[in-house]
Batch of 2 targets.
Target 1
Amino acid sequence: MRSTRVAALVCALLAVGALIGAQDKNILSLTNDLGATLEWDPLRDAGVISFGDDRIAVAVGADSALINYRIKVQIDAPVRRNGGVWLTTAAVGEIGDAVQKDRLAHAGEHLRVQYILLDPGHGGKDSGAVGSVSSGKKQVPLMEKDITLSVGRTLAALLKEGFPEKEVILTRNDDTFVSLEERVVIANALLEKTKDTILYVSIHANTSPFNKTASGFEVWCLPPAYERTLVDEKAAGKENLDILPILNSMREEEISLESTILAQNILSGLEASLGQKSANRGLRQNDWYVVRNARMPAVLTEVGFVSNAEEAVGLADPAYLNEVAQGMYSGVKAFIQGFERSGSGSAR
């Protein structure tokens, strides 16, 4: 349980402070006493103590520590001495108090998914990929924007019914053009409304003009090595700017793992729903604009190829698109249930 880990951290910090009296504490010894891990950047002389779900960021010469990426507490500045980094008893106590106050304010709460943002690709003047299907003696266009909107609407309805306590949002609910920048703004604005988790699911259809036989569904997420700014500089404070790269690296690792698990669950859901009708092309990685700029677990799903004549027939069929949405729903549902049951999700 998260609350048990928090209590253990607070008690350990306070106990360490009591035991060492007026003496300073070497940060390596403190980390060992807590049973925690330490990631230290010798160039910046800054690092992060990780204990369960909690992150404590400190830097030599900085008179504040950052708790869980967002709570700043004033402390005696850590100093470098005798080849090590040292914290005063008072600093250890202040950190322990800050963690305790923050967690007591949310006693009994469990990390959960609060928002699910569905992003049907393209729309309005932007048709996306275009294929065609037969209608009598005519060939009629099959537009990606129509496919993604249909899947998005159905998926939203399924999620609202299955998770009435969560907020399901569509970046567009009709044939409206929404720029990539606007989609990201919608996503990241939600971060200011909650301390819980937000899921971002972008929906697209594929095309391969030079390989008409290409078919199947795939899910994309950001490559783990990609670096972005996930921790607010305002929260860290000017005196802690040197530590931001470490904080961002750790937060990136958490979001990358959650995104990968979400992607794998959606793939499994689609495979179960579509059966032999479409091929599972697997998990892919790329720095798509919306995925790299959404500061939360984010995936991009390609539900099929409009350029494949056989698959295009399915993508033009509302019943088939309903199966696609059902598969994606199963994947998102599996992720949420696993995330909330384990309590191992990361706070913002």
Target 2
Amino acid sequence: MARSVTARSAHRRPATTKLRALVGWLFIIPALSFYAVFVLRPIALTFQYSLYEWDGIGPSTWVGTANYGKVFTDPDLFDSLINAFKLIVFFSAVPVVLGLAIAATIRRITESRLALVARTVLFLPQVIPLVAAGIAWSWLLASTGVINQLLSLIGLGGVTRAWLGDFATALPAVGMIGAWVLLGLCTLLLLAGMSKIDPALYEAARLDGAGPWREFVSITVPSLRQEIAVCVTVTVIAALASFDIIYISTQGGPGNTTMVPGLQIFYLAFSEREVGTASALAMVLMLLVIACALPIQWFAKDGNR
């Protein structure tokens, strides 16, 4: 009797497993369908368009990989890729480094009302639409804006200029706007990570005579490997795919000083009617984003082994 019950239950297990797998697929299929229609299909069409010379309306002409060659040989297109990598310094390095310092400071004063105010103020740029932020910073950085007025008040009138209209300062100025936008997000992510660190580690370090800097370097930073990886990934993608802030503040100028791939793709596709070249640049940008994001994720996973 016992053997027959065991045999029946063993017979039912594969059927139950198959049923669970079927139910699981029924839950997944709607999401996969949306992903295929709104992500995979556009990527496939973009790759297809990149192999043709097309104005978006008339007949297309097969050119193979010529559009990809143009991306790397045309100075304007290639410089836009270089500008995107330059923005990584401002969009990624500045928010992550400052975010670590600010989060560590807030953690030490977490019981005070100042910590709550600081978190709220720092996160405000994430709530403000990027278009509004771009317009506001365009006013602040104008030749008669608040920044130049403050510099003149403290006796630094000689360094005032139209920060977004000067060839030497336009890209750093745009970069600082991006750093301001992303600083709050990085700070809150890192602060959340710090809240999970065991306080006993800090107490043991203090008993061994470690100061605040040694605690920060030896305990805080290593414990935030995952959070730092998330911050770097998000900010690097924001730098490479930047569009709205630059479109509102400089529109790629002066000249092509602040031209980035996202803006270049927009101009090529909708102003110059070079859909094939725009698609090739979009594919190159997607591959660059993947090439930058994957090593960061692998680095974070290796640190948890």
